[in-house]
Amino acid sequence: MIAHTSGETAPASRRRQTAAQRAVLSVLDSSEHFRSAQQLYRQLRQHPTHQFGLTTVYRVLRTLVEDKIAEIQRAEDGELLYRIRTTNEHRHYLLCRQCGRAEAFTSTPIEDQTRQLSRTFDYTDVTHHVDLYGVCPRCRDT
Ligand SMILES: [Zn+2]
Ligand SMILES: [Zn+2]
């Protein structure tokens, strides 16, 4: 009996974390739009069985990003937004500032200029973030 109880301690905590991960994933999966941790948290709380704290949501999101299951994008105000990763390729986004809808694009001039500047100034490991923000047709028409 004692052995049984103590044997359950570690798996139980793992199970809780897995349940939170599953819950966050199901909410992330429900939309392709980028959403903030706060928004995801609020959507999560609408399910009676998904009463996880905001700290847990942040922790799960961080793990999902580290595991490359989720991708992050910065909102116009710098807040981090999340969604299920759709591609591992380098992309830029035109993002709706109201609903988080994202149109991915690649830009040869931006990539070329990055390489050129890196060469000119002899920098290595150069990265860039070029994000565009606007209002999508659906948000504009409602
Ligand atoms: Zn929109
Ligand atoms: Zn780029």
From TrEMBL:
<comment type="subunit">
    <text>Homodimer.</text>
</comment>
<feature type="binding site">
    <location>
        <position position="96"/>
    </location>
    <ligand>
        <name>Zn(2+)</name>
    </ligand>
</feature>
<dbReference type="GO" id="GO:0045892">
    <property type="term" value="P:negative regulation of DNA-templated transcription"/>
</dbReference>
<keyword id="KW-0479">Metal-binding</keyword>
<feature type="binding site">
    <location>
        <position position="128"/>
    </location>
    <ligand>
        <name>Fe cation</name>
    </ligand>
</feature>
<feature type="binding site">
    <location>
        <position position="136"/>
    </location>
    <ligand>
        <name>Zn(2+)</name>
    </ligand>
</feature>
<feature type="binding site">
    <location>
        <position position="99"/>
    </location>
    <ligand>
        <name>Zn(2+)</name>
    </ligand>
</feature>
<dbReference type="GO" id="GO:0005829">
    <property type="term" value="C:cytosol"/>
</dbReference>
<feature type="binding site">
    <location>
        <position position="111"/>
    </location>
    <ligand>
        <name>Fe cation</name>
    </ligand>
</feature>
<keyword id="KW-0238">DNA-binding</keyword>
<dbReference type="GO" id="GO:1900376">
    <property type="term" value="P:regulation of secondary metabolite biosynthetic process"/>
</dbReference>
<keyword id="KW-0805">Transcription regulation</keyword>
<dbReference type="Pfam" id="PF01475">
    <property type="entry name" value="FUR"/>
</dbReference>
<dbReference type="GO" id="GO:0008270">
    <property type="term" value="F:zinc ion binding"/>
</dbReference>
<keyword id="KW-0804">Transcription</keyword>
<keyword id="KW-0963">Cytoplasm</keyword>
<protein>
    <submittedName>
        <fullName>Fe2+/Zn2+ uptake regulation protein</fullName>
    </submittedName>
</protein>
<dbReference type="GO" id="GO:0000976">
    <property type="term" value="F:transcription cis-regulatory region binding"/>
</dbReference>
<feature type="binding site">
    <location>
        <position position="139"/>
    </location>
    <ligand>
        <name>Zn(2+)</name>
    </ligand>
</feature>
<dbReference type="InterPro" id="IPR036388">
    <property type="entry name" value="WH-like_DNA-bd_sf"/>
</dbReference>
<dbReference type="InterPro" id="IPR036390">
    <property type="entry name" value="WH_DNA-bd_sf"/>
</dbReference>
<dbReference type="InterPro" id="IPR002481">
    <property type="entry name" value="FUR"/>
</dbReference>
<keyword id="KW-0678">Repressor</keyword>
<dbReference type="GO" id="GO:0003700">
    <property type="term" value="F:DNA-binding transcription factor activity"/>
</dbReference>
<comment type="similarity">
    <text>Belongs to the Fur family.</text>
</comment>
<keyword id="KW-0408">Iron</keyword>
<keyword id="KW-0862">Zinc</keyword>
<dbReference type="InterPro" id="IPR043135">
    <property type="entry name" value="Fur_C"/>
</dbReference>
